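can u pls check wat happens w/ C2R
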Amino acid sequence: MTDAKDRVDVAIMMGSKSDLDGMRPAAAVLQTLGLGVEVRVLSAHRTPEEAAAFVRESTARGVKVFICGAGGAAHLAGAVAAHTTRPVIGVPINASALCGLDSLLATVMMPAGMPVATVAIGCAENAGLLAAQIIAVGDAALAERVDAERGARRRKVLESDAAVRAELRPGPGEKIDGKRGA
Ligand code: C2R
């Protein structure tokens, strides 16, 4: 039996170690939400056999969602989707002269029948949150943690709103920059 601490809920793959810093937020948010992650550097271009084998083994082991980050001619998420029917989330990475637009289009423009849910360029945190939301559909305790995380973000914005309003509320006859009006 797999120990809870060894359980992998989400596999995070990236095409190169150079993607790692961009992909860390996905792992961080998933771990904060109490999900098990496995992080691998595997490329559809450079290690096609190993990538396919990992996806098939992970699917058999019960991994629930795959997150794939890649830059440039980003085939990784699509290639992963070809080997599993578990949800695949693509993270386009800004890694070339085209600033991630190449990766965005390569990741999102999948043919019918092979969906890849694609988040914004460089937004690995959203990939982690989306994976958690998908898994939370069948896990009430996780759903509560996801809701709490959303609530914390809401509170943070409202705190910022209150602070900005307090700082920039012009007094009578005062302009917004604090100077006296003409
Ligand atoms: P290097 O920094 O290793 O040269 O990689 C990687 O994700 C990375 O952003 C440059 C970029 O190439 C990407 N790469 C892919 C794939 N494998 C590597 N797009 C793939 O399989 O799609």
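The CA atoms of residues 45 and 75 lie 8 Å apart.
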